[in-house]
């Protein structure tokens, strides 16, 4: 039995334990009071420093300050005294200026990055020539010997910069000589190129002159003995008469993007696609429709697809197809110059081409046109006037979507798109007076699907500097039922 805890002198008695705990609590309280006094003293010291700083600022600003009235309050809401007003003012002064050190660091990083990529690097960047700084030796004065001072006392000392300047002048002369030689060689090469271009221009002018001369000869021949028999000299016309307008049949490039890999496709230009098999079937169905229609003249755009469509239609009529570039596609969609063949080359491929026909335009005399399908209207108007004034009888025009839309605009005042291999009928009642019987008729076609009629609206904005064609985003498809 342990009786030691019951002895008065033992340290682990209840009284001793309670006494120790009271002493520890008292010591902790004393330590806390000492710490509070230290914190309070530090706060008071800081407040005194801030008050002294504020008093100094007020003393400096007192001559410029407005006198406050007796009812002035520190704050209308809380009465708070802003002890950090100077810091806030400094922040407001620097607001929006940015961190200059940070910006300079970012600029250097960006410059280093651009330099590694090799972009945005100015010529001679960072050199003294660009910064217009003198070399160190140019700022040194040449020392003068004593004897030289005695002999030439009145001559001022010459700086080393004169020597450097003379060397720089010599280098500049050498560079100027090299640049003169280079300019001379460039003039020679440019003169040779200009000679080539001038030869091409002369050849083009000669070709155009030959075409004009040929046109004049043929027109004089037509105005002679052949005019009364053929009635194509612009004499008295018989009215009313019918003008048929047919759009070419389906193109091969409508269904096959690799059409130039087909036999004969590599010889054609990118804008001169031939007819597809379905297109040839459509052209034959057009021929059946016109089998009992009397025609006096057939005009077609000189592209392969229109010449072939017209040749199939008039195959059994004993007529020749007159290739007319004035009826070709909108020039903004064609190559420059357009990729159709000359009449002699066309006749080798299509025997029914009339090479004696004098066209209104040629490949090299087509006028310049802007962007948009309606840009071809002036050209088509000129072509229609020449054809209708010169050729009598019923006429057929085989053309493309944009020129046929232009024909509708010229005669009916409404730019209208028609489907492929469809027929439009106009009646010329008297000179200059035309009415439309029907438009884009596809009743003769066995397959009326996907004839590709479409409507794209363009508007012409007149500005003080130029004419701009603006195409609207709205594109409306015309259904086959609406075309009937």
Automatic annotation (TrEMBL):
Polar residues composition bias: residue spans: 152-169
Organism per entry: Ancylostoma caninum
Domain CBF1-interacting co-repressor CIR N-terminal residues, every copy: 8-44
UniProt region (Disordered), positions on chain: 148-204
UniProt cross-references to Pfam families, sorted A to Z: Cir_N, His_Phos_1
Residue stretches of biased makeup (Basic residues): 177-189
Protein name stated in the entry: CBF1-interacting co-repressor CIR N-terminal domain-containing protein
One Gene Ontology MF term: phosphatase activity
